[in-house]
Every structure is written in structure tokens, then in C-alpha cells.
Amino acid sequence: MRLAFGDELQLGSLVAALDRITQLIVQRVAIYVWTTAKNRLSRMRLGRYSLRRTRLSLRARPVRQMGVIGVPERVALSHSSRTIRAMTGDGFVTRAVVFPLDMSPSEERLLGSYCGARRFAYNWVLATVQDNLDVRRVERESGVPEDELTPAVPWSATRLGTLWNQAKDEVAPWWREVSMHAFRSGIVDAAQALDNWSKSRSGERKGRRVGFPRFKKRGQAVPSVSFVEINHQLSWLHHNRHAIRLMLPQSTPELAVKRRRRELAWLHTSSSTRRLYRLVEQGRASIQKVTVARRGGRWQASLLVRYQLDARPVPKPRKRHGGTVGVDGGVKHLATLSRPVAGLTDTTGHVINPKVLAGQLRRLRKLDRAVARCEKGSRNRRKLLDRRARLHGRITKTRALHLHHMSNALAGGFDVVAIEDLNLAGMGHRKRRLGRALADASLGELRRQLTYKTTDHDSALVVVGRFFPSSKTCSDCGLAKAKLALGDRTFICDDPHCALVLDRDVNAARNIAREAQRLLEQQEQPVAGLRPETQNAEPRPHKTSPAHAGMAAVARGRNQTALPATAGGAQDLDGTLATASSSTSRQPIRAPRITPLCRT
Predict the structure, then answer these.
(1) β-pairing, 350-352 with 333-337?
(2) Which residues pair with 351 in a beta bridge?
(3) Is 375 a catalytic residue?
(4) Which of these is catalytic: 107, 189, 229, 420?
(5) DSSP readout, 228-277?
(6) pLDDT one-digit tens code per residue, 403-439
């Protein structure tokens, strides 16, 4: 059948229209597929230049628990309970493991609301306790009998949590939008702060006097929130070794949280959690608490982990020099060692002070001026505050890197490390520039690192008393000067037969090492009386010869309770222990922190 000319035109236009429709459909499908793939790949990110993570699937046994992924009808996933063991006893050590977080903007906003809820609960507890104390004080001044006063508000975290549950509908009607663990974190912190204040007033707490807790202000307090769950350990870590679980609210009116629970429930970590995951899976470590905080302009997760002694983090082997080394902290030089160490000090024993803060003061001043010129609450001001926080974080991490390098070399290279007990707080309050230089050196952080690293490396840490004249005493003949000005950087011995001329810091470091050896030798002396010991339950009616003052002090130190020392070890004077290894036999010696018996 032949078609007319008009019919051919109509058929051609129809075919062209169908072809156009087909092209549009294919184009739409291609755009949809490309957009879907791009969105999924954009969630895979690892570091700065990688992509965002995909949806994380869960592979574990389902176990019901509170405040976890999914709506109340769903179940959270955890590891089998037979791998979870009680971390109690003396064969364990507690350490913190920090993982930098690489989160999406949605997760940052959710964590910001958690931190705000924690701060709100903390301030509510303080306000409730302070109002109760004021009411009772006014009633007491008015002559009201003690038994008729307003009942006191309990300060325990459990009782305060009960009061919060009774008042949360009135004071915080939005409490369902965040996890209950955020409020619990603030209540526990407030209870601990009140307990510290109470013990400081009664004299039970050592150290400086602790004042009444202050209210936390938005923008000034460190944004942080803590989560505690010990029953299901592996539910904290994802099976891909690059994510930490975030507890979500069980029922929230926020649609964005409801629709994206699987994505928001896992916080991506920049570093791998493989080793910790393996230890927790084997039952050799347990995660006691997880704290997510924003420090230095970056979010990080700090896991409080309790290891078995055989599973604790093993330090890298260091070049072993053996013997005793004295460390004299300073400002011009970060520290001065009694013995020069290749790769750490110069030929005289000085460790270079990096002065990280001093190198960034100009940039910090520029940022401070820019922040002061911005309007409060503006977006530019927030950006500048983030830049300044990141700069402070970079300074802190760089300083910590230098301190870790030095403490690892000292704890892993020597059998005994001797340091001074410096009054850093008193030294820093004298002059502004001196205080800033001492804060930049961070000698207190160096002592803290040596305290636990000497234990890991089977070494001993000896703390010489702050009144020991290390700088005024000659390291050759032992003659002590009456006065030595701070500006005298070279020590010259007054004894004409000695006439030692030496750098002041090197002389002090040698004296610290010698004093540490003396204390160790004095500690190893027997502390029993001159007469023979009696049998069990046998009375001694006659008098015994008293020991001298030094022996009595050692005896008092040994009678204090502490962990049992190893064979050939000795307990130190204040009851604390550390390990030491001899350069020949490499047997552990328990003696970490020793204070001088008297002023020399």
C-alpha cells in the first residue's frame, strides 16, 4: 500500500518525536545513574583529598541496647558477649587512644547539639546546687533550726540524674532531639566538679585549692561529650576499622536524623582502628569511655582503653645507652642532659628548644586583630575563630611531637632518668615573658610523658626534690656556693684545688644524675633493726636500737601500700613504683619516683 505525501510527512514527524523522547529518557536515566554514583562516592573520604565514605553496613550479632543505631523497633549490632571479659584486677593498665575524625557537616551539627545539651545539663546542676546552698544559708542566718532547713540537694551523679529526669520536661522540653548520654555526661562532670570542690575544702584533695565550679559559656568551653557503655565492646568500632559509633537518640522528631540514621551513626576516623579492634575482639582490652571533643579546630575521639599488661601498646625499640642520665629543664634550651646523645643533643648535651609558640606569635597577633575588628556573631568572625583555633592546634601538636621524641629517647635509652621537681606555677607567675616561655617549653608535659614511658620501657624515673642545689653545687668536688645569680650561665668552682669551669646547665644535669644514684643506693640499704627479727607472734619485751633518720624514712616509704615489686626490686619512698633495667643483667628494678630525704 502506498502512502500519500502528507501521510509520509506525518509518519516522519512521529518517528522523529519518538526518537527525541527516547533520547530524553536515556539522558534522564544516565543523569540519575551518574548522580547516584557521584553521591555515593562523595561519601567515601579518607583525609583531605579523598572521597566520602559509602553507607556502612553492619556485620555482627544483633543485640538490643539503648541509645544506639535505629529506631526503638530496630536492634543494634554488637559482638558476642563471650569475648567480653571483666577488666578488673592488678594486671591491667589504662591508656587513652586518640583518633582524628573526618566527619560530614551533618555529623558536625549533630555533635554540636550534643555538646550544647551536655553544657546545658552541667549548668543546670550547678544552678540547682547553688540555689539550694543559698536558701539553706539564708535560713541558717535567720535562725531556723538545722533539722528544719530545706533538704539539701544530693551531689552524687545517680541522685542528680534522678532529679534531672523529673525536671527535664519542664526545663528542657527538647530533650528528645539529642541522646540521653549527652545529658548524662554533663551531670557526671558536674558531680565530679562538686566533689573536687568539697574535698579541697576539707583537705582531702591534694594540690592547689579548688574553687566552686563555674558555669560553662558557649563559645568558651571546649565542646565535648562522653559516652559510656561496657556491655557491648565491639559495638563501638566498625568492622572496616575506620569508624567509631555515635549514639543517636532513640526517638527524635528530626526527620533528617530519622532518614539518615545509618550514615550518622558512624564517625569516620582518619587513622585505622585495626589493632584496637583486634584486642577488643580477643578480650584483651576493653573500652571504658568514648569522648568526642573539638580541640584545635578539629574533632577527635578519645577512647579510654584498659589493656592487659601483655596487650598494652609496645613502644618502638630505642638505642640503649644504659646507666643514669640527669635532665635539667630550661628555657633557652629545652633540656640539658648529663651525657650527650647523638641525634638528640649537641656535643655539650643541650637539647634545642623548638619555641613553637614564639615562632607563631606574629600570625596569632594578626588573627587576634582581625577577630577584634569583626562583628560578633558574624560569619567572618566564626571563620577567623576557626583559623585561630586550628593554628593553636598546630602549635600544640608540633610541641607534643618534639616532647614525644625526647621522652622516647630518654625512657628507651637509659636505665634511670633523673629530673627535678620544679615549681612551674610559681616560676611562671613572676614575669609575663618568662611564664610564656615556660608554657611554650611545657616541662610539666615532659615529666608526665616520662612518668608512664619509663614504665613501658622498663626504666626508672627518679624525681629529685626542688630544694636540691643542683646549680650551686660543683659536679666535680661537691662544693656548694652560697649564691649564684640567674644571669651567671657559667659555673666556676670556688675551690682553688678544683677550679672547675663548666656550663651552668650541664653542671646541674650532672648533679641531678649523681643525686639520683645516691637516692637509689640509699633506698637499697636494709631497713631492719640492728637486732635479729623475732618469730611470728613472739613478743619482744626489751628495747631495740633506733635506726637513724634516713633509714626510718626509707622504712616509712616501704611500709606504704603499692603494687608488689619484682625480684631484686625496691619500692620507692612515696609508695609509687616504676621499672628499671640494669645495663648488664637487664633485670627490672622498681623505683620510679623518689624524693630526697633531706636538704643537702
Answers:
(1) antiparallel
(2) 335
(3) no
(4) 420
(5) ---S-STTSB-TTSSEEE-PPPSS-S-HHHHHTHHHHTEEEBSS--HHHH
(6) 999 999 999 989 999 999 888 877 767 677 888 888 8
